[in-house]
Every structure is written in C-alpha cells, then in structure tokens.
Give the backbone structure.
Amino acid sequence: MLEQRDADIKSVLKAGDMDDSKKEKLKELINSGIDFHAMGASALGRHWEPLTEEQRTRFVSVFGDIVRSQSVADLEVYQSSVTYGEIVVDGNEALVNTEITYKDAPTSVVYKLVRKDTSWWVTDIILKDVSTVDGYARSFQSVVRKKGFDTLMTKLEERQAKIATAG
C-alpha cells in the first residue's frame, strides 16, 4: 500500500509543471490511507470522549483539511529515496519501518497502521522517533485543558482559513 502510494506520488511529480489540479491529486495521494478520525481521537485523548458526534465530525474535518494542506507544502521531500525495512504485524496492528534519504540525509520514518475490514489505515507517522499524533496531542490537549474545546476549534478554523487563502 505505502510503496504503491510512493510510486504514484513520484509519477505525478515527474509529469511536468505543478498546477492546482496536480497539487490536488498529490494531496489525495499523499493522504490516502490516513485515518484522520483515529488520529484526531488519539490527539485529543481523554478530551475526545465527552464531545458530541457533531463536534467530533467538525474536528476531524478541520484537522484532516489542515493536515492534507500541509502535506503539499514541501513537495521536494516526496522525491526522496525510500527504503522499506522490517514490517511488524501484531493482529490488526502493524509497524512499517522505512528510511527516507533526503538531501543525502537518512531519516527514520515508521508508519503505524491498523487494519479495518480488509484495508490498512495509517494512524500515526513517527519521524525520527517523534510521533506526529503525540505532537498534535501536546498542542491540542493543552489548549482544551486551559481554554476549552471551542477555543481549539476557533484556532484550528483560523489556521484552516489562513491556509486556504495562502493557496
């Protein structure tokens, strides 16, 4: 799944000048297979449970939109060499170890996946031993704890709007 995604991304990048439709295609490819619902729930931790279904849906939508938009901020990194290492499967969970070489610097990237039905979904990306979800969790949970969920949503929606106007 991840290897095919990487090949598809590289194919789009090699196909000439970058326009809006190619950026959208890349955004779709880069984020395919990511479970934003699971990532969002993990990032909010204990603050997820008391939310209404409407609040959860709104949060996942905005959070996912921000992550998708940020994924195409530095397209050069997707032209890097990727080496797939050990894959550890434990029931419905898996870790896929990779090494990305970008500008002659190797970087460890581990994908944490969960199987739902017949598909595998990425629930975290660990870059240089730092969990993406943990990074979001520290930020999000601090805001919710100090100022409440509505303040977090206001901040995220402002960020989303800023990204949208930046193009």
Summary: The chain has one domain: 2-166. The radius of gyration is 17 Å. The chain has a mean pLDDT of 89.
